[in-house]
Amino acid sequence: MRSSAARGRKMPDTLPMTLRMYQRLASGLVPLAPALIKRRLKQGKEDPARVGERRGLSRDVRPHGPLVWIHGASVGEVLAAAALIERLRDLNLRILLTSGTVTSAAVAAKRFPPDVIHQYVPYDSPRYVARFLDHWKPSLALFIESDLWPNLILAGATRRVPMVLINGRMSPRSFPRWQRMYGTISALLSRFDICLAQSKTDAERFSALGGRDVLTTGNLKLDVPAPPADPAKLERLMAMTRGRPIIVAASTHPGEDEMLVAAHRSLVGFFPQLLTVIVPRHPDRGSSIAGLITASGLKPALRSREELPTATTDVYVADTMGELGLFYRLSPIVFMGGSLIRHGGQNPIEAIKLGAAIVHGPHVFNFADVYEALDASGGARQADTQELLVKQLGQLLADPAARDKLQHAGAGVVEQLGGALERTMTALEPYLLQLRIEMGAANA
Q1: 286 and 435 assigned to the same domain
Q2: Sequence-ordered list of residues with C-beta below 8 angstroms from that of 229, at least 6 positions apart, any chain
Q3: pLDDT tens, 81-123?
Q4: CATH label of the domain that carries residue 300
Q5: Which domain holds residue 355?
Q6: b/e per residue, 113-134, with b = 16+ CB within 10 A?
Q7: What pTM does this model have?
Q8: Catalytic residue among 77, 145, 256, 323
Q9: Do 238 and 216 share a structural domain?
Q10: Is the pLDDT of residue 28 over 50?
Q11: Are 186 and 269 contained in the same domain?
Q12: DSSP string covering 324-338, please?
């Protein structure tokens, strides 16, 4: 049984030429899939025990009853769904969570209970997508943010699966590109029953690109609970670093580590015991970051090698997965990565919820509304240059009152901007009601 919205959704009679070509190309490339998988295995981008999932195959059995399928690209999207998944589980709904990266799979395994089924999203070939949908037969599909795979969306719509875009985001870089391909994007967005956007700006962009029933519900990442930390590991780290001023650089990207190491070298003259902790967005960069630190004349330690920071460690490279909650609790000052380069900035919310004072670079368009509110209220500090980065970090190291003021203002912004989870649940209520009806019928 499908929701009335899905049953009544009118599909365009024909696809634009771009999507027809995409389908043919995706089908034609299937013979190359083994070579692609082999290459990605060598790069560490696939799990050798689960490569079948990329071809739509699964060893897991579909659970009985309604199944809510939630798809997100990677770690950020998976974590954004955490509170929503908890609420859906409270309704006794079974969850299928898909993502596309090894790191997100590891996070899902740590963050969610065993009854939340994680699968790698299949490669976007009609054959693989059909296998996936034939096996799982989702009752409701929720796509997070903007990971829009054409064949996945088109096949779901053809099967009348109710589909909702949640926590929708359309970046200022993507919007003009899609405007030039309006026929393509509108054919995809029109397959969704509703689009739930993070902000008014996002909602306007989705509407302009052909989205139907676009609502502004807010950013689910603002409602995500603070990440956990192993108490024993935290106690050990605190014992090893007690008395030292600490800066955490979270989710850094290539091009930023050099600037942070240089900032450490400038600051250590004023704060001789300073420890900088670099948490790379992609842990496999740990060794290269350690080499950079050594080349600069500083002493690194790598967490992936089970090393702990000693009294002689200058920069600690936390190249592991799922431990940001640990390091956010370790330091009162957090620099948010992805913002000194044109990546668009990483999510500052979890760090703020754990009491951090936030410093960021100028490139924060991924979370523009959040950072604008933080900067306007004095809840974060922006550093546009290397010199200003050193200045901002140095002031916060030297002035505990300034740190407290920054953190208090940031916490106020997070509280003010929250509520996306409740608005999302309200928007999903017609679909969830239908699933509860199906559950009742199945149990009758």
Answers
A1: no
A2: 323, 325, 326, 329
A3: 999 999 999 999 999 999 999 999 999 998 999 999 999 999 9
A4: 3.40.50.2000
A5: 231-417
A6: eeebbbbbbbbbbbbbbbbbbe
A7: 0.81
A8: 77
A9: no
A10: yes
A11: no
A12: HHHHHHH-SEEEESS
* 3/9 Cα distance (integer angstroms): 10
Asked whether residue 385 falls in the same domain as residue 433, the answer is: no
pLDDT averaged over every residue in the chain = 94
Q: Is 34 part of any domain?
A: no
27 occurs within a structural domain: no
- Check: CB of residue 237 under 8 Å from CB of residue 301: no
Say what percent of the chain tops pLDDT 70: 96
**pLDDT tens digit string along 375-400?**
999 999 999 999 999 999 999 999 99
Note whether 331 and 409 are same-domain residues: yes
DSSP letter, residue 69: E
pLDDT at 319: 97
- Residue 87: which residues within 8 A CB-CB, separation 6 or more? 421, 425
Going from the C-alpha of 366 to that of each of 145, 168, 182, the distances in angstroms are 11, 12, 22
- The alpha helices in 217-285, defined as continuous H runs, are 231-241, 257-267
Domain assignment present for residue 5? The answer is no
Give the CA diameter of the chain.
Answer: 73
Q: Is 258 considered catalytic here?
A: no
Q: Which two tokens stand for residue 325?
A: 């909650």
Whichever domain contains 117, its CATH number is: 3.40.50.11720
Q: How many C-beta atoms surround the C-beta of residue 438 within 10 A?
A: 16
Q: DSSP for 130-182, please give it.
A: HHHHHHH--SEEEEETT---HHHHHHHHHTT--EEEEEE---TTHHHHHHTTH
Is 387 in the same domain as 436?
no
Shared domain check, 235 and 86: no
What tokens appear for 259 in the block? 């600037």
Contact 331, 238 (CB under 8 A): no
Question: Which tokens sit at 249?
Answer: 């650089």
Considering the domain boundaries, does residue 52 fall inside one? no
For the chain, the domain total comes to: 2
> Does residue 359 sit in the same domain as residue 433?
no
Residue 152 above 80 pLDDT?
yes
Distance CA 421, CA 404 (A): 28
